[in-house]
């Protein structure tokens, strides 16, 4: 069971984390602060996009999403796990329901506990000591206009007797546009190449292939979108290079999504295109509930289904 | 991969089944014919309800579901697995998109093959010989009016070196009504009691509790509806009594659903009630994709995701 209370956007996300018996070193602090900062940047940028373009979009978009107040803005709530001796933590859940950004779901969290028995062999360093500490962010954007792609970004630091970063981002357009796909992948390639040039862990070909492999619906034999990056077990033994890469992927995702979204803000769409978008969102819902291993693990251990499922589409159809 | 072709409702559902190396005895024939007949009864009764009440509902309902032709009616398609030496089969998929019955999904199938290794220990009789033959029906009804509950019925005969029936039915109202819940459970209790009285396998208390246990969303700690019946491994060594019970549950479900639906046909509903219904359908989608073991198995072995997922709600919301 979770206690939910509403706080302000400028709440205590960067407050000292609960430890769960872990020694919180400066790197863990730094990662936690960064994910909180990135979440606030996402709220600021996407909130500004909605405020500006949503006002122009007028009441038509509003009609389509009566849950949205005319001014848009994120609704922010904090949740906390009842703290046991060995597990606890919590997070901040922010949801924007807009005229242009139909639904944005953002979750920034720090949790700790022990991996269940069946996960201990699979998680690096957990066979020796099942305790983990993790901090991360997950961001999913479902725009109203079907010409703007749905997009997803998430990243996390996991600490056991080892420590590593994981993360990724991808575009899931209902109506794919080659120019958007190229813009997105060019930006991600650039981030990876810059990292590699500096001796860091960026590897576009590998992380792109990994993304194609992970974000795939086996039961429909189809990818969930046009891809992006996915990485896990990222620990090159140079923390600074790893952390820089993780940060660059996050900021690049935000910037590139905004570039792509602004291209299509004024593009008209038909009721039929909107329906195709909702059927496509049915596929995204299938992926999340059938195939997303992070969601599976979250539902089993998190205790907050609304936080784990914050990226679910606002509306989906199975006609 | 599946070949899909459109056939008439009055197609060859009762034609001699493919055998997959099984000797098809008269009982297997009888079960297959019964599920086909029940499917046709469902089409006839629900089609008539839609034709009659849908015409009265007028264009408002139609606007809400532009996929529906004004006259309603089931769209029927047959699918077939490419026949290997040891696996094959197929089914008939019927979908009604109406003004009153927003979406009815019906699947009648006969499939055969070999259980994958990890299922052989779990399926009765499969350790000795992994081959199976199965015939069954699945029916899901999602009405437009949120005062009429969504409802589900399915049943099947599975034959390995043993043979048994499984099945169940339940109501999932967005806005539960105690009178509907009582009507539904009273009818199911009557079927079970009549069966028990004749020495058959009906056991209302056990099958109701089993249903409550199975149709439950652990991640939200909530049932998916107001329950019904669930049974599996039904083989009391008196085929005739088992088969009679299975048939009675099917006809009772159809009749009782219609009784409940007709109570609320003219009941007005608000946009807010409709939105609550769509959020509730998000929960049903979560159950189907996260928790429904039949769906999991079907997606892994069936080869036809549209048939396995025919019960998905027409529209779902995660606001």
UniProtKB/TrEMBL annotation, chains A, B:
Annotated InterPro entries: Coprogen_oxidase_aer, Coprogen_oxidase_aer_sf
An example Gene Ontology biological process: protoporphyrinogen IX biosynthetic process
Pathway in which this enzyme or protein is active: Porphyrin-containing compound metabolism; protoporphyrin-IX biosynthesis; protoporphyrinogen-IX from coproporphyrinogen-III (O2 route): step 1/1
Assembly: Homodimer.
Taxonomic placement: Bacteria, Pseudomonadati, Pseudomonadota, Alphaproteobacteria, Rhodospirillales
GO cellular component labels: cytoplasm
Protein name per UniProt: coproporphyrinogen oxidase
Group of enzyme by EC: oxidoreductase
Domain of life: Bacteria
Annotated region described as Disordered, given as residue ranges: 1-27, 53-75
Keyword set includes Repressor: no
GO molecular function, one term: coproporphyrinogen oxidase activity
Family named by the database record: Belongs to the aerobic coproporphyrinogen-III oxidase family.
EC number: 1.3.3.3
Keywords linked to the UniProt accession: Heme biosynthesis, Oxidoreductase, Porphyrin biosynthesis
Organism: Roseospirillum parvum
């Amino acid at each position: 069971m979770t206690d939910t209370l509403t706080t302000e956007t400028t709440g205590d996300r960067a407050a000292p984390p609960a430890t769960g018996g872990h020694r919180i070193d400066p790197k863990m602090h730094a990662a936690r602060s960064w994910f909180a900062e990135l979440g606030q940047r996402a709220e600021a940028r996407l909130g500004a996009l909605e405020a500006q373009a949503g006002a122009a979009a007028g009441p038509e978009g509003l009609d389509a999403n009566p849950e949205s107040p005319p001014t848009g803005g994120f609704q922010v709530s904090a949740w906390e796990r009842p703290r046991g001796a060995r597990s606890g933590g919590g997070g901040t859940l922010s949801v924007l329901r807009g005229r242009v950004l139909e639904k944005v779901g953002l979750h920034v969290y720090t949790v700790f506990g022990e991996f269940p028995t069946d996960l201990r062999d699979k998680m690096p360093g957990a066979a020796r000591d099942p305790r983990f500490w993790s901090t991360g962010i997950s961001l999913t954007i479902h725009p109203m206009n079907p010409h703007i792609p749905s997009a997803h970004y998430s990243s996390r630091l996991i600490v056991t007797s080892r420590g590593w970063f994981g993360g990724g981002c991808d575009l899931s357009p209902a109506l794919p546009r080659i120019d958007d796909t190229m813009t997105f992948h060019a930006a991600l390639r650039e981030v990876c190449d810059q990292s590699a040039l500096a001796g860091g862990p960026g590897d576009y070909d590998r992380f792109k292939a990994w993304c194609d492999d992970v974000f795939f619906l086996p039961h429909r034999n189809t990818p969930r979108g046009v891809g992006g990056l996915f990485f896990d077990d990222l620990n090159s033994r140079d923390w600074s290079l790893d952390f820089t890469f993780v940060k660059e992927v996050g900021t690049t995702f935000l910037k590139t999504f905004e570039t792509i979204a602004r291209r299509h803000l004024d593009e008209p769409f038909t009721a039929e295109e909107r329906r195709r978008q909702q059927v496509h969102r049915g596929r995204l819902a299938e992926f999340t509930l059938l195939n997303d291993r992070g969601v599976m693990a979250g539902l089993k251990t998190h205790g907050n289904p609304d936080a784990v499922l914050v990226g679910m589409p606002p509306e989906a159809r199975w006609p």
